[in-house]
Design brief:
By secondary structure, this protein is of the alpha+beta class. Helices cover 18% and strands 28% of the residues. The strands form three sheets. The chain has a three-stranded antiparallel beta sheet with strand order 1-9-8, with no helix packed on it. A three-stranded antiparallel beta sheet has the order 2-3-4, with no helix packed on it. A three-stranded antiparallel beta sheet has the order 5-6-7, with no helix packed on it. The protein is elongated, with a radius of gyration of 31 Å. The mean pLDDT is 83. The structure holds FE2/S2 (inorganic) cluster. FE2/S2 (inorganic) cluster (FES) binds next to loops.
Length: 174
C-alpha cells in the first residue's frame, strides 16, 4: 500500500516549527489562566480610593456648648455624632463604638452607671469611654479611637462633614 506523502505534510504555510510554537503558546495560556486566578485569590484587593460626601450637618447656633446631635454620615443610616465642646469648638465622630459597634452617647439620656460628663463619650454596652475632644479611649475594652469626621465651617456658620481625618476604618468595614 502506498502512502500519500502529502497527507502527513502540514498545510502550506504551517511549518512544523510554527505548529510547535503554537502548541507551546496554547499550553502557556492554559497554564497561565489558573495562575492569574490564584494570584487574584491570594493577593489582597487593590486599595480603591473611597470618596465621602460633603454634607451640611447643622448651623453653629443649633447646638449649645456641651451638647450634641446625631446625624447620618456618610450615609443616612450610619449614625455620627456632632459635639459642641465646652471650649466652643466642634468635633464629629462616627457613633459606632470601635469595640463591638454599639451606639455611643455624649449627652443622651442619663444611663445607669454613667454620669453625664461633658468631656466624655460613653458606650453603654461595656462601659467604653472616649475623650470627647480627641475620641481617644479613656476606659473600657475599645482599643482604638472613634473615627473622626473632618468638619468645615463656613462664614455663615454652616457646619459640613467632609470625609474623615483619622480613625478609619469604620466599625464593620475593613
Ligand atoms: S461595644 Fe462599646 S464598649 Fe463594647
Amino acid at each position: 500500500m502506498q502512502h500519500n506523502k502529502s497527507e502527513n505534510k502540514p498545510p502550506p504555510g504551517i511549518t512544523r516549527r510554527n505548529a510547535l510554537k503554537g502548541a507551546v503558546l496554547f499550553g502557556a495560556v492554559v497554564l497561565l489562566i489558573p495562575a492569574v486566578r490564584l494570584m487574584d485569590f491570594l493577593l489582597p484587593p487593590k486599595a480603591t480610593a473611597v470618596t465621602y460626601p460633603r454634607l451640611l450637618v447643622a448651623k453653629t447656633g443649633d447646638i449649645a456648648p456641651g451638647k450634641s446631635l446625631v446625624f447620618g454620615y456618610p450615609t443616612q443610616d450610619r449614625a455620627a455624632l456632632l459635639i459642641h465642646l465646652s471650649d466652643g469648638s466642634f468635633v464629629a465622630y462616627d457613633a459606632l463604638c470601635t469595640h463591638l459597634g454599639c451606639s455611643v452617647h455624649f449627652d443622651g439620656d442619663p444611663l445607669k452607671g454613667w454620669e453625664n460628663n461633658p468631656e466624655e463619650i460613653f458606650c453603654p454596652c461595656h462601659s467604653g469611654v472616649f475623650d470627647a475632644k480627641t475620641a481617644n479611649v479613656l476606659a473600657g475594652p475599645p482599643t482604638r479611637p472613634l473615627p473622626k469626621i473632618k468638619l468645615e465651617i463656613d462664614t455663615q456658620g454652616n457646619i459640613y462633614a467632609n470625609g474623615y481625618e483619622s480613625g478609619l476604618p469604620l466599625y464593620g468595614e475593613s
